[in-house]
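Summary for the lay section of the report: proteins are chains of building blocks that fold into shapes. Here we show the chain for Equilibrative nucleoside transporter and then a coded description of the shape we predicted for it.
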Amino acid sequence: MAVDDSSQTPTRLEGKFGANIICWILGIGSLICWNSLTSIDDYYYDVFPDYHPSRVLTCVYQPFAFGSMAFLAYNESKIDTRKRNIVGYIMFFFATFALILLDLATYGKGSIGSYIGICLFVAAFGIADALIQGGMIGDLALMCPEFIQSFLAGMAASGVITSGLRLLTEAIFNNYENGLHKGALLFLSISTLFEFLCIFLYAFIFTTLPIVKHYRTKAALEGSQTVSSDLNAAGIQTDLTLTQKLVDGDLGHLDRLSNKELLFQNFDYALDLFLIFALTLSIFPGFLYENTGKHQLGSWYPLVLVATFNFGDLVSRYIPLINCLKLESRKGLMILVFLRFLLVPAFYFTAKYGDQGWMIMLVSFLGLSNGYLGVCVLMAAPKGYKGPEQNALGNLLVLFLLGGIFLGAGLDWLWLIGNGSVLDQSAKEIVEYFAKSSYIDVL
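The coded shape description reads as follows.
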């Protein structure tokens, strides 16, 4: 494919609609495995009632996601984006399939050995998350903002899909023997198949779309090395063109800001994402499962709360597509992010004194503000930069996003203050189990 003038935006953006759809599906694939786990938390609470599955699995997931993302963000310019994303989706595929095999092998019994096995596969989820989120957002940042919005909307859609399926399986399997177990296996099976679809779409379809080829060619001519494999897969060779520009002394287009300079210029955006997701994960999902009490909805209550959050998160991620509702003021974003912390006392007093209607309203607002503010930041930040800088900035912003999630997962445990007997009892039971069991029994 010959590209005569890659510095200009094409007048006809062939394949834009298809690229938006694929970005949406890839966004679903980046979180459907994790959302499946959060949606079947009631199953894990039934199997492991004393081990706080919602909180523990989140705390296992996040250090691996954040640590991997820190390494990837530091080395982003040397890492091939195509290989990175494909490896991430493959890891999700095999880790989810392994969870199914582990559950079948242990017959759904809650031994400490199977719990440790689940934690190991969840750690693999964290690594895959860092590979895909940073890789995809960095890659889409050098294209048009609508692609980032579609990817982020897909991430939220994965939560809505899994919540809807969870409510459906609760209605279908509730009166069946081992209904929770069957529903959990169904969730994991769907997630496994979906990851396989994402591998196929990204590897063979997305890279061949004309608009995607255009933006990646433009990034390559600006000095980006992360798109080389994608261009080769699409049958595009830019080496000769780039070499000729080097010979002619046209080096200005290859100059780029360092990661430190990019972070300095966009620190407010990075802080916004950090605080947005730190607050969200300090409440969702652990607080919703363990600290909201019992109400008329019974076992449906936490499922309804999770579904409410996911639906609000999804709807709000489409609001920035309406120009008059898109917030681009950096000061305005920062003010709203800080005002959002008023939700902490609101959740505390509602859980203690309010009824389920007020809690559902609060959870809805938590989801709406999370999705809206996150999309506004990630759509606005990459504007005005060259392709390599946009890719680097996308990785840096995802690093702060995952850092916020990591902190939020830790802060989520603070809701247990005042309920120390639960923690003490859990620790005591684990110690007694090891004392009574041989090494072989534990495994």
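Put simply, here is one thing we learned. The radius of gyration is 23 Å.
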